[in-house]
Amino acid sequence: MVTAYSSGHSTWTWDAPVVARPPGVSAFERLWRGFMSARIGIAIVLLFVLAGIALAGIAPVFPWQFALCSAYLAASLAVRLFMKPVPPGRTFDPQWVSTIGIDLLAFSLLHFLQVANLSFSPLFAVPVLTASVLGSLLLALGTAAAVTLLLLVDASLQALEPEHTARLVQAALTGGGYFVVALLANELAMRLAREEEAARRSLSAARTQAHVNELVIETLGDGLLVVGMDWRIHAANPSARQLLGWQAPEAPASLALVSRPGWRPLAAIAQRTFDTMDPQSAELALELTPGERLHLRVRTRPTSAQDPYSETLCVMFLQDLREAEAQVRTEKLAAMGRMSAAVAHEIRNPLAAIAQANALLAEELSDAGQRQLSDMVGKNAHRLSQIVEEILNLVRVPQQPVADWLELDQSVGGFVGEWERQAQAGARMRLLLNSGTAWVTFDGEHLRRVLVNLLDNALRYASAAPAAIVVATVMGSTKARLQVWSDGAPLDASVQRHLFEPFFSSESRSSGLGLFICRELCQRHGATVAYTRGRAPDGSGREGNAFTVTFRTRASMVPGGAPFDTIGA
């Protein structure tokens, strides 16, 4: 049996024996319908019996006898078609008049009048059983008592003749039997009702627990697979689908670990789990597509069969190693943030003393060489002070900065020229300035920091070919954009998901803060930075990696020197 729970665009599917859904009608209603149908059947049989006796000439049959059985049939049909079952309560329910009352009346008339010289006393079992199974104990005993009285009255009337004195004893024994039947049938019916109620409560609790489990599994950050000994995938949560590149709409039950070559390492660790029936742990590299490798930490747990109808399963927990490393780095960042304020104060005060002492010393220096050295000390002290402030800004509550208005082409040209001389990029670097007179709201030093980080990142992965790095500006219909493009290899999907996270890097020697700082600085100035894989902006058609910064823009300058807003923020 397959049960699917849908949540958004993902589906958690479990292929295992589950508790069946409750039927549309309760056991009480099914019993009620059975008894009402039986009354209809009895009425039809009585009509056929009377018709057979009349046709065979065994005994005289009068029209009123057919009318009585026909009326009983009509009443039984009306109850079955138009009435609904009502569970027994503590008070008297009028519905029992239309069932048990009509049964007692019809069967009593047939029994007392001795229609066709037949004995109709066995028919009294029908109202007794109906009252016992569908009604309360009081109704069951009352119906048995009424039947017993009717039998005793009939036996008393016939016992006036000497040859019929044994009928009184027979009526008493029959009545006693009906009391026993009423007690036993009512006890069995009550036990059935209690068991059904307990089953409904258990089913409700199981459904609630299953829904809770589904929600927990759906939101798990780690991937989860449940695999059988035949390699068939019984269950897969959305995280596992995303990790394994499983975008196809097919259900897990239609796939197996051995059906895709890239999943074979998972099949191997599952086999070790089944062979040893012990938990396993390993770090695996899955090649999902050519050139894309997924590094996973896999933990397995076997589940033994609980009954003959269940099977042994292997539960696999999948964790992306890159995400685990990013989480560790984030925790390190949080720890660094807690102590950064105190460290910054400790660094800021010596820097201030160094800068002040250097300024005082510079006033007394006359040698040109010594003045040059003093200027270098001052500039680097100032730069260290700015770096401290930037690191502090990363852990402070973001505040709206006081933005400068920069002419995009002029600022980018100056910053790129400075970086090109320091990095000695030479022919590998190409600059395309096409934003015209666009002005952007951004702090100049922050823009330099963003551009240098993006260029350093591009230089690390670009080739040595001419124009391997292209910096371009462009003015769109509403926004100005700065793009840093390089001809590096495509990034793995797992890397792209964490590009702008702190301390995340595909190289162990990188700090992983460059792109994170770029994103933070852009957000504080109302800009955005994004990664895409696309063609070079110089029109050469080459594929590469592009980081694009989109700015808040002003199109021109008014005579007073302030930006003129023609586009809006």
UniProtKB/TrEMBL annotation:
<dbReference type="GO" id="GO:0007234">
    <property type="term" value="P:osmosensory signaling via phosphorelay pathway"/>
</dbReference>
<keyword id="KW-0472">Membrane</keyword>
<dbReference type="Pfam" id="PF00512">
    <property type="entry name" value="HisKA"/>
</dbReference>
<feature type="transmembrane region" description="Helical">
    <location>
        <begin position="40"/>
        <end position="58"/>
    </location>
</feature>
<keyword id="KW-0067">ATP-binding</keyword>
<dbReference type="InterPro" id="IPR036890">
    <property type="entry name" value="HATPase_C_sf"/>
</dbReference>
<dbReference type="InterPro" id="IPR003661">
    <property type="entry name" value="HisK_dim/P_dom"/>
</dbReference>
<dbReference type="GO" id="GO:0016020">
    <property type="term" value="C:membrane"/>
</dbReference>
<feature type="transmembrane region" description="Helical">
    <location>
        <begin position="95"/>
        <end position="113"/>
    </location>
</feature>
<feature type="domain" description="Histidine kinase">
    <location>
        <begin position="342"/>
        <end position="555"/>
    </location>
</feature>
<dbReference type="GO" id="GO:0005524">
    <property type="term" value="F:ATP binding"/>
</dbReference>
<dbReference type="InterPro" id="IPR035965">
    <property type="entry name" value="PAS-like_dom_sf"/>
</dbReference>
<dbReference type="InterPro" id="IPR036097">
    <property type="entry name" value="HisK_dim/P_sf"/>
</dbReference>
<dbReference type="GO" id="GO:0000155">
    <property type="term" value="F:phosphorelay sensor kinase activity"/>
</dbReference>
<keyword id="KW-0812">Transmembrane</keyword>
<dbReference type="InterPro" id="IPR003594">
    <property type="entry name" value="HATPase_dom"/>
</dbReference>
<dbReference type="Pfam" id="PF25323">
    <property type="entry name" value="6TM_PilS"/>
</dbReference>
<feature type="transmembrane region" description="Helical">
    <location>
        <begin position="133"/>
        <end position="153"/>
    </location>
</feature>
<dbReference type="InterPro" id="IPR005467">
    <property type="entry name" value="His_kinase_dom"/>
</dbReference>
<dbReference type="Pfam" id="PF02518">
    <property type="entry name" value="HATPase_c"/>
</dbReference>
<dbReference type="InterPro" id="IPR050351">
    <property type="entry name" value="BphY/WalK/GraS-like"/>
</dbReference>
<feature type="transmembrane region" description="Helical">
    <location>
        <begin position="64"/>
        <end position="83"/>
    </location>
</feature>
<keyword id="KW-0547">Nucleotide-binding</keyword>
<keyword id="KW-1133">Transmembrane helix</keyword>
<keyword id="KW-0418">Kinase</keyword>
<keyword id="KW-0902">Two-component regulatory system</keyword>
<feature type="transmembrane region" description="Helical">
    <location>
        <begin position="165"/>
        <end position="185"/>
    </location>
</feature>
<keyword id="KW-0808">Transferase</keyword>
<dbReference type="GO" id="GO:0000156">
    <property type="term" value="F:phosphorelay response regulator activity"/>
</dbReference>
<protein>
    <recommendedName>
        <fullName>histidine kinase</fullName>
        <ecNumber>2.7.13.3</ecNumber>
    </recommendedName>
</protein>
<dbReference type="InterPro" id="IPR000014">
    <property type="entry name" value="PAS"/>
</dbReference>
<dbReference type="GO" id="GO:0030295">
    <property type="term" value="F:protein kinase activator activity"/>
</dbReference>
